[in-house]
Design the sequence.
């Protein structure tokens, strides 16, 4: 059985890749070998024989880890990320590595050195990013589950644009060991699936304390599927009305307002909440994320792994040329910005200020959660936009993350759930954000909506 | 705050990037646009606000992350060098330093 399932996924990935460009590597041989082993052993692991696609910035031993960048060359990590160790131990089979924006920096997947991923609902449009390949692979029915990383919305935003569920857990829930670092205080590994129950099962397997990542918290991992009770009677849902205004597409707004009505019908209490500092989130994010990135990406210097520029007889010249030739424009822009905000004389004005406003954003959430169990917002201000539409305007591109970055800044969990199609048949998603460690509540609420309004539409490009 | 081409060059040096002519021209205006945008944070009085540095959740901050002082396996010299662009005699080899 597991062999058949894995074979189906691999064949679909191969067949659709020319159209979608979702995979950077497909491991037919290795994956089938593992599927056969699992079948022989008759493993009863929680994920036995489940095919999984993994974003190409998460280390899987034996497979490449390009991070969508040329600077990593033909890098093959010599170890597994902790989340991969845990998933494979439970019987999951990694079938390949998915395309992404270079070093997870982007909201459209157009920053990949290996070409953009195309949206299976309309191949002239973006998949969202940065985990666009993983979102697309799940949306097109290639795999039931995929992993991504979410620093400012990189799981939730492409999930919304592709019509699947995407979770960013609480900071410290999943180990980041083996995830190539972008912004360490914001990065979390997340999960894509078409059903809430699948997300809950996978998180249950991979979450928890890891001695290899000192930022994982010593918090017990509950049985997340136990939360899928369907009972929303005592739930309190907060609506930050002030965020449903400027820049929000009319169809998205209507769609999310309808979701609020559905929750009301299901017995949830709807309360108004305020997040007065949320409008500063993009500014705070682009200081903190770029500062951390400029430091994290200093390790790519052509010495220990990856690409090295040729004909550079002197060390400094080698560093500079390697980084100039190896990094793409968006990564350079962010390294430059991060170096600038951290440089002598500017640290207090930018970095320290941003960290102080981050406290205010976090306090907004703590205050709001005194009155509700979760907050509901759109995930993305618009459905999928056209390839090329925003590439020349970095700031316009950054504003795609307006609804998602706050959760990363505060460290709280968020989940995107599909809630319909626009008139152009493009998916729309809504987001639930909860307090620290409230994943069970988010699953309960997302599952309740899923039961009441199942999203059964399929994209025209699919593996079914 | 104005950002000149000289500033861009200085930052590029700090970041070990060798920008080409076109990047020097485009990055300046783009960085000015982004820096102007982030300066909206100055509207806020943050005099008595603690910066959000350190463990984000109370549980994360309270987690004892020290490991036992025990010897554990490592990648080993051979594996660690396998992905290097250039290595020799068990070391990473780099171009002339001085």
Sequence:
């Amino acid at each position: 059985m597991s062999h058949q399932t894995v074979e189906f996924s691999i064949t679909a990935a191969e067949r659709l890749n020319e159209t979608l460009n979702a995979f950077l590597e497909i491991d037919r041989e290795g994956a089938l070998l593992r599927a056969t082993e699992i079948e022989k052993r008759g493993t009863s692991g929680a994920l036995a024989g489940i095919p999984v696609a993994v974003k190409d910035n998460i280390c899987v031993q034996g497979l490449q880890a390009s991070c969508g960048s040329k600077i990593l060359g033909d890098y093959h990590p010599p170890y597994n990320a902790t989340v991969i160790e845990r998933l494979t131990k439970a019987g999951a089979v990694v079938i390949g590595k998915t395309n992404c924006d270079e070093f997870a920096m982007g909201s459209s997947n157009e920053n990949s050195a290996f070409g953009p991923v195309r949206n299976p609902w309309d191949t002239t449009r973006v998949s969202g990013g940065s985990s666009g390949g993983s979102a697309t692979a799940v949306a097109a029915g290639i795999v039931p589950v995929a992993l991504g990383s979410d620093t400012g919305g990189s799981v939730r935003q492409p999930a919304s644009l592709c019509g699947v569920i995407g979770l960013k857990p609480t900071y410290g829930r999943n180990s980041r060991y083996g995830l190539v670092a972008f912004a360490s205080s914001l990065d979390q590994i997340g999960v894509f699936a078409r059903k809430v129950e699948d997300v809950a099962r996978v998180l249950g397997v991979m979450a928890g304390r890891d001695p290899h990542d000192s930022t994982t918290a010593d918090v017990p991992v509950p049985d997340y599927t136990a939360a899928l009770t369907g009972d929303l009677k005592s739930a309190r849902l907060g609506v930050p009305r002030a965020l449903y205004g400027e820049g929000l597409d009319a169809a998205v707004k209507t769609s999310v307002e309808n979701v609020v009505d559905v929750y009301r019908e299901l017995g949830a209490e709807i309360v108004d909440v305020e997040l007065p500092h949320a409008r500063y989130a993009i500014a705070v994010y682009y200081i903190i994320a770029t500062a951390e990135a400029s430091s994290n990406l200093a390790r790519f210097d052509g010495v220990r792994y990856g690409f090295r520029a040729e004909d550079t007889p002197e060390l400094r010249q080698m560093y500079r040329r390697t980084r100039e030739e190896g990094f793409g424009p968006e990564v350079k822009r962010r390294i430059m910005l991060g170096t600038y905000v951290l440089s002598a004389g500017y640290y207090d004005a930018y970095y320290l200020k941003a960290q102080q406003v981050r406290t205010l954003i976090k306090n907004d959430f703590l205050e709001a959660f005194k009155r509700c169990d979760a907050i509901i917002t759109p995930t993305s201000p618009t459905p999928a936009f056209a390839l090329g539409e925003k590439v020349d305007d970095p700031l316009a591109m950054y504003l795609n993350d307006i609804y998602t970055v706050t959760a990363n800044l505060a460290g709280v969990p968020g989940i995107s759930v599909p809630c319909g199609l626009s008139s152009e048949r493009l998916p729309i998603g809504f987001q639930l954000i909860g307090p620290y460690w409230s994943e069970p509540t988010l699953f309960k609420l997302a599952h309740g909506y899923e039961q009441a309004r199942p999203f059964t539409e399929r994209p025209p490009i699919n593996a079914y | 705050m104005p950002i000149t081409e000289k500033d861009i060059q200085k930052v590029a040096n700090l970041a070990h990037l060798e920008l080409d002519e076109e990047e020097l021209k485009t990055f300046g205006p783009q960085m000015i646009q982004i820096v102007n945008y982030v300066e909206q944070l100055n509207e806020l009085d943050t005099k008595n606000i603690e910066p959000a540095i350190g463990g984000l959740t109370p549980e994360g901050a309270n987690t004892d992350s020290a490991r036992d002082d025990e010897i554990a396996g490592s990648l080993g010299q051979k594996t660690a060098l396998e992905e290097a662009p250039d290595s020799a005699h068990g070391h990473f080899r780099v171009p002339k330093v001085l």
User: Anything to note?
Assistant: Chain A touches chain B through 76 residues (CB under 8 Å).
